[in-house]
Design brief:
The protein has 468 residues and is of the alpha+beta class. Helix content is 59%, strand content 15%. The chain has 3 domains: 172 residues, no CATH class; 80 residues; 151 residues, Heat Shock Protein 90. The radius of gyration is 52 Å and the shape is rod-shaped. The C terminus is likely disordered. The structure holds adenosine-5'-diphosphate and magnesium ion. The site of adenosine-5'-diphosphate has 14 residues, from α9 and α10.
C-alpha cells in the first residue's frame, strides 16, 4: 500500500475529487447511452408497427379490388415518411425471404469510432437488433415487417455523443480541480499557524497562542492548544519556583553547615592541637617515650583541619562579591589543581572585566562552575578541564553577555540518561538570570557546557543583591 505520510493533503483531496468526478461523468455518459438506445428501440418498434399496419392495408386493398396486378408489398410510402440515416425497413414473407427492403444511407460527417469502443458498444447494446411485427391478412400471418438500424450508424452516433461529454469533462475537470484546490488551501491555511505555534512551543516559547479560526474543528484544536500552552507555562513556572527555592534552601543549608563546622568542629580541632602541643612539652620533660604519640595527635589534628578547610571551601564559596568573579574562579581552579596533585589539570582563561556585574550573577556563575568542575572530576574522570569566561560587550550601548565555556576530555561512556540535581540546579540558576545553558556529553568522550547570561546595560545601577 502506498504511504501517504508525506503527501500534501490538498493534493490528495483534489485527486479524490477528480476521480469521483470522472466516475460521475462515466456514469452520466453510461446513462445517456442507455437512454439513447432505449429511444432508438422505441422508434424502430413504432416504425415496425406503422409498416406492418400499412402492409396490412395494402393487402386488404388488393384483395378488395381483386387486383391481380398487385405491387404488394410496397414500402415506398412508409419509407418516404419515416426514413432516417441508417434506418432499414423490410418485408419478410412466411418463408423467411426478404421480398422488399429500404435502407437510409449513413451520415458521412460522423467520425469513425475506435475499434475498442465499437466492440464494447456492440457487446453492451447489440445495436443491430431488429423490431419485428407480424403482417396479418384475414386472420392469417402473411409475413412480417422488420425494422432495424445499421449498427455502424448507431455506434458512430453513440461515439459522437460520448465524445461531446468527454469534451465537457476535459474542460470542466481542470476547472473543478483548481477550484477545489483553492478552496482547500484557504480552508487549511490555519494549519500553518497551528504548526508554527507547535514549533514555537517545542523551542520553549510558551507565550505562543493561536487566534480563533473560522472552521469549528480547527478552532477547537486552537482552544485546546492554548489551554495546553497555558498549563505547560504554569507547570514550568511552578517547577522553576520550586527549584529556585530548593537552591536557596541548599545554599542556606550549606552556609549553616559551614558555620557549624567552622565554629564547633574547627574550634575543637584547634583545641586538640593546642592540647597536643602542651602534652608534648610535658612529655619532653617527664616522659620522652610519649613524644611520638603527641606528635601523631598533632599531625592528625592538622590533617583534619586541612580536610575541614577543603570542605568549608566547597560549602561556603569565598565572598565572590568582594573578591570578584574572576579572582574567585581562579582560586577555585587553583584549589582543584592543588588537590588533584597533577593527576588532573584545570585551566582558566578570563577575557573582559567582571567587576561591575550584579552580585547574584557572580554568585550563581560561581556555583555553576563549582558544580561543573565537580562533575568533570567525578563523572568523567577528566584529565584536562578548561574553563573560559568571557564578557561580550556590545559595540553600541546596550545589553552585553557573559559567556562561560567548560570543556573536559572525559572518558567515553553512555550519555546521561537524565540530568540529576546538579545539572537541574545549573539550569535553574541560568534561567533565574535569564540566560541559556547547553550541555553535551559525547559518547566518544569529552563534554562541553555552554552558558550565556545577559548583563544589563548601566551595570552600576544594578542591585548588589546576594542570592547565594
Ligand atoms: N562532565 C561530565 N562528563 C560526563 N558526564 C557528565 C558530566 N557532567 C554530568 N554528567 C552526567 O550527567 C549526570 C547528571 O549530573 P548532575 O546533574 O550533576 O547529577 P549528579 O552529579 O548528582 O549525578 C551525571 O550522573 C553524569 O552521568
Ligand atoms: Mg553533579
Amino acid at each position: 500500500m502506498r504511504n501517504w505520510s508525506g503527501s500534501d493533503l490538498k493534493l490528495r483531496l483534489t485527486l479524490r475529487v477528480a476521480v469521483v468526478s470522472m466516475l460521475c461523468f462515466a456514469a452520466i455518459s453510461g446513462y445517456f447511452l442507455v437512454d439513447a438506445d432505449r429511444s432508438v428501440r422505441a422508434r424502430i418498434t413504432a416504425v415496425a408497427d406503422v409498416t406492418a399496419r400499412t402492409l396490412e392495408l395494402q393487402q386488404s386493398k388488393t384483395q378488395w379490388l381483386n387486383n391481380a396486378r398487385s405491387d404488394f408489398p410496397n414500402l415506398d410510402g412508409v419509407a418516404a415518411s419515416v426514413m432516417a440515416p441508417g434506418l432499414c425497413l423490410a418485408f419478410r414473407n412466411t418463408g423467411g425471404e426478404i421480398s422488399q427492403r429500404f435502407c437510409g444511407g449513413a451520415q458521412t460527417d460522423m467520425a469513425t469510432p475506435p475499434l475498442a469502443f465499437t466492440a464494447l458498444y456492440r457487446r453492451l447494446f447489440d445495436p443491430g437488433r431488429e423490431a419485428v411485427r407480424p403482417v396479418v391478412s384475414r386472420g392469417q400471418a402473411i409475413g412480417e415487417a422488420v425494422v432495424w438500424v445499421d449498427p455502424a450508424v448507431l455506434t458512430a452516433e453513440a461515439w459522437h455523443d460520448a465524445g461531446r461529454l468527454m469534451t465537457v469533462l476535459m474542460l470542466a475537470l481542470p476547472l473543478l480541480c483548481a477550484l477545489v484546490y483553492a478552496a482547500l488551501s484557504r480552508a487549511l491555511r490555519p494549519t500553518l499557524l497551528i504548526r508554527d505555534g507547535l514549533a514555537r512551543i517545542a523551542t520553549g516559547d510558551l507565550a505562543a497562542r493561536l487566534p480563533p479560526f473560522d472552521l469549528a474543528e480547527l478552532s477547537a484544536i486552537g482552544d485546546v492548544f492554548n489551554q495546553l500552552a497555558e498549563r505547560l507555562a504554569a507547570a514550568l513556572g511552578d517547577r522553576n519556583a520550586l527549584t529556585q527555592k530548593l537552591i536557596l534552601v541548599q545554599d542556606e543549608e550549606r552556609r549553616h553547615l559551614a558555620r557549624e563546622l567552622h565554629d564547633e568542629f574547627g574550634q575543637s580541632l584547634a583545641a586538640i592541637r593546642a592540647l597536643a602541643a602542651s602534652a608534648r612539652l610535658t612529655a619532653a620533660q617527664d616522659c620522652p617515650p610519649l613524644l611520638a604519640e603527641c606528635d601523631g595527635i598533632a599531625r592528625t589534628a592538622t590533617d583534619m583541619m586541612e580536610t575541614l578547610r577543603g570542605a568549608l571551601f566547597r560549602l561556603r564559596p569565598p565572598d565572590v562579591d568582594e573578591l570578584g568573579l574572576a579572582a574567585s574562579l581562579e582560586g577555585l581552579i587553583a584549589g582543584w589543581n592543588s588537590r588533584s596533585r597533577g593527576r588532573q589539570r584545570f585551566e582558566i582563561t578570563v577575557a573582559g572585566s567582571f567587576e561591575r556585574i550584579p552580585a547574584s550573577t557572580a554568585a550563581n556563575l560561581y556555583r555553576i562552575v563549582q558544580e561543573a568542575l565537580t562533575n568533570a572530576a567525578k563523572h568523567a574522570g577528566a584529565t584536562r578541564v578548561t574553563l573560559r569566561l568571557e564578557m561580550r560587550e556590545p559595540a553600541l550601548a546596550g545589553d552585553g553577555e557573559i559567556v562561560l565555556a567548560i570543556d573536559d576530555d572525559g572518558k567515553p561512556g553512555d550519555p546521561p540518561a537524565k540530568s540529576g540535581m546538579g545539572l537541574l540546579g545549573m539550569r535553574e540558576r541560568v534561567a533565574a538570570l535569564g540566560g541559556r545553558l547547553s550541555f553535551a556529553a559525547r559518547q566518544s568522550g569529552g563534554s562541553s557546557l555552554r552558558v550565556s547570561v545577559p548583563v544589563a546595560a548601566g551595570l552600576e545601577a544594578a542591585p548588589r543583591d546576594r542570592a547565594a
